[in-house]
Task: inverse folding
């Protein structure tokens, strides 16, 4: 899956969870940029992403997420390992 | 997978959801949202549906949803993620749930403190969802102590709020330390949880508490579907958000059952539903049924399941496109048929469209269309019925008949809370009714018909023997129900000792059989300022005994009770609901005078007992006073 495609799918998830169609994800986007991105919605994002991409994050990976760019490369890595 | 396999896939679901929010009037908006919940949606779509629902009804309750259910969700870990799914679960059963989330860990104090926020919320339902870690740690090696923590909570919820309690069983999250014979290591958390789940089942029955059997569904879907240690460590979510939609549906169907909304009748297609092949083409020898083929055995198994449903009180009907004689053939002559003609309360085989036939079945059985579940292998017929009769539940039967049972069982259409002796008799009662109809057709006059029935009406004050059935009738009777007031078992029990209450249960037998408990009346003196008035708070009756003078006989009993309690007049109320139009004129017919009409079209009627003469009825009355 291309990075662009991952961004598109991830954007859908973000828009759904935060109920905001104006969200545009950039690599440097962090929880500080989206008002409702709290620890509860963080878990919702993780669980939705796992379901949508058919992947599983490890405890340490969830702890260490820095920004959207980091999240996307992690997804990319997991998809590659799956293929 | 915890998927709604019985609900149809809806390719344009998101568009439908957007449309639902745009409906101009509240009633149709509600209807559209209910429809959106009847699709094979997952946890994310469920959350989305909930957001749209709350946006569409910013002030809360839509009138079309009837009385809201106030549900308190109490637990010992994170439950917030289950709230949207519970609202949608209630929506799917036509109910609006207002949900109170307890502070976690505070559940026990909240349940016993009369001033807690929970007390102010006044819950109808308390759903106690304790996590296994909390319970195992609190057990301290003693099962009795652990169980007592539950029963204290249950009794607190019942006593302090008059709430109905739903207890979620414990998730088997702990790995084994001994192995197959884990029970021998009594300190093991896995053994404790397993033993407690067994104990909870007995205790819940003793305390009148309903279970949400999370452990059973965990076993069915697999623990990993329900529980992820990563999430437990990260956010103390024991139930995985991925199965939240399923959890919400389990709550929804329990709420539906408590409110008397579970389906009552399974309507079966015949060809390729009850047997393989087409009876009109393949003949008795050609259809697949019974030993000898895997398909034939699958159909037998399905019939056996229908039979089990019948035995617990679900009515069976047939709706098939066939010549009647062909359709009846297997029921009468095929040795491997499990279901027989006498098991089918209403048998319709003709060439009319199925929507019309389903209407006919509902009318004949005197139940609402929303009480029907229609099982048909043909996707075309299913779609047609869903279009024409959205109230009818239509399971998405899979192609392989081996999975018919699972699909219908998982759908939870017939969610039940008790099984009363009346339930076990129901199949026979509907059959007897058909025989009564024949007598009615042959009798030349009404009195002759009634005399021929040889009816005996058994009248008793509420007692503990009848309690389960009384509560069941109070909570599920919709049509012949003057006020549709629902009461919990605790409330009904209180009435039994209240000297200002005259509450009676009625049973009717005739020469065709025992109809079981068919009516419940609750009269109260002292409710109005004028203490000489007995108010008929509740009057409900089974539609099966309509037109047999039971109404008149019931009134006579109330008149006697009123006089005994020193009342000189009766006050009857009629509170209109979506379903009780049939009794709007009952009091008028019985000679009451209209006193007032309220804003919501509720009417109040009075009957002066001075010099009132009781109505003549053609039946024996056996009254036992306590």
Result:
């Amino acid at each position: 899956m291309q990075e662009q495609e991952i961004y598109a799918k991830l954007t859908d998830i973000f828009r759904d969870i935060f109920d905001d169609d104006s969200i545009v994800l950039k690599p440097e986007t962090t929880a500080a940029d989206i008002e409702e991105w709290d620890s509860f919605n963080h878990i919702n994002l993780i669980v939705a992403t796992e379901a949508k991409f058919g992947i599983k994050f490890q405890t340490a990976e969830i702890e260490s997420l820095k920004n959207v760019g980091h999240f996307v490369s992690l997804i990319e890595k997991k998809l590659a390992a799956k293929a | 997978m915890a998927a709604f396999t019985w609900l149809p896939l809806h390719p344009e679901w998101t568009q439908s959801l957007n449309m639902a929010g745009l409906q101009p009037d509240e009633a149709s908006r509600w209807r559209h949202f209910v429809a959106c919940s009847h699709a094979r949606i997952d946890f994310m779509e469920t959350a989305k549906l909930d957001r749209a629902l709350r946006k569409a009804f910013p002030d809360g309750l839509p009138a079309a949803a009837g009385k809201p259910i106030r549900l308190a969700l109490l637990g010992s870990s994170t439950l917030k993620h289950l709230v949207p799914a519970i609202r949608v679960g209630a929506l799917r059963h036509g109910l609006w749930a207002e949900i109170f989330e307890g502070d976690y860990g505070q559940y026990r104090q909240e349940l016993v403190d009369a001033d807690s926020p929970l007390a102010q919320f006044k819950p109808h339902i308390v759903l106690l969802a304790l996590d296994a870690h909390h319970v195992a740690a609190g057990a301290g090696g003693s099962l009795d102590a652990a169980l007592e923590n539950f029963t204290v909570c249950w009794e607190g919820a019942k006593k302090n709020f008059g709430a109905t309690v739903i207890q979620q069983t414990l998730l088997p999250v702990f790995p084994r330390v001994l192995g197959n014979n884990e029970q021998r290591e009594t300190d093991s958390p896995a053994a404790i949880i397993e033993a407690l789940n067994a104990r909870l089942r007995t205790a819940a029955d003793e305390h009148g508490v309903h279970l949400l059997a999370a452990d059973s569904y965990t076993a069915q879907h697999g623990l990993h579907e329900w529980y992820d240690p990563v999430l437990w460590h990260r956010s103390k979510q024991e139930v995985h958000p991925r199965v939240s939609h399923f959890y919400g549906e389990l709550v929804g169907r329990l709420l539906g059952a408590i409110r008397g909304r579970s389906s009552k009748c399974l309507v079966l297609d015949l060809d390729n539903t009850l047997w393989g092949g087409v009876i009109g083409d393949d003949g008795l020898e050609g259809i697949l049924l019974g030993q000898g083929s895997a398909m034939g055995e699958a159909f037998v198994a399905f019939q056996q399941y229908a039979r089990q449903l019948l035995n617990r009180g679900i009515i069976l009907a047939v709706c098939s496109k066939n010549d009647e004689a062909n359709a009846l053939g297997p029921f009468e002559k095929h040795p491997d048929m499990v279901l027989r003609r006498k098991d089918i309360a209403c048998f319709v085989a003709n060439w009319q469209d199925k929507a019309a036939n389903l209407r006919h079945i509902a009318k004949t059985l005197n139940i609402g269309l929303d009480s029907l579940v229609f099982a048909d292998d043909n996707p075309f017929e299913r779609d047609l019925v869903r279009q024409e009769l959205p109230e009818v539940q239509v399971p998405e039967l899979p192609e392989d008949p081996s999975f018919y049972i699972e699909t219908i069982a998982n759908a939870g259409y017939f969610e039940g809370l008790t099984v009363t002796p009346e339930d076990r008799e129901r199949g026979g009662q509907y059959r007897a009714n058909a025989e009564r109809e024949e007598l009615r057709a042959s009798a030349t006059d009404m009195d002759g018909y009634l005399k021929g029935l040889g009816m005996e009406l058994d009248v008793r004050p509420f007692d503990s023997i009848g309690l389960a059935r009384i509560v069941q009738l109070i909570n599920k009777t919709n049509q012949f129900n003057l006020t549709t007031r629902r009461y919990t078992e605790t409330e009904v029990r209180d009435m039994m000792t209240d000297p200002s209450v005259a509450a009676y249960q009625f049973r009717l037998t005739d020469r065709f059989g025992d109809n079981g408990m068919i009516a419940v009346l609750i009269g109260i003196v002292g409710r109005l300022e004028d203490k000489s008035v007995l108010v008929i708070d509740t009057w409900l009756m089974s539609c099966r005994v309509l037109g047999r003078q039971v109404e008149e006989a019931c009134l006579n009993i109330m008149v006697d009770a009123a006089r005994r309690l020193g009342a000189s007049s009766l006050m009857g109320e009629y509170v209109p609901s979506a379903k009780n139009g049939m009794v709007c004129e009952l009091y008028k017919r019985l000679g009451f005078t209209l006193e007032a009409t309220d804003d919501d079209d509720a009417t109040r009627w009075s009957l002066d007992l001075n010099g009132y003469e009781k109505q003549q009825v053609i039946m024996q009355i056996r009254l036992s006073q306590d």
In short: Residues 6 and 72 of chain A are 7 Å apart (CA to CA). The mean pLDDT of chain A is 91. The two ends of chain A are 10 Å apart (CA to CA).
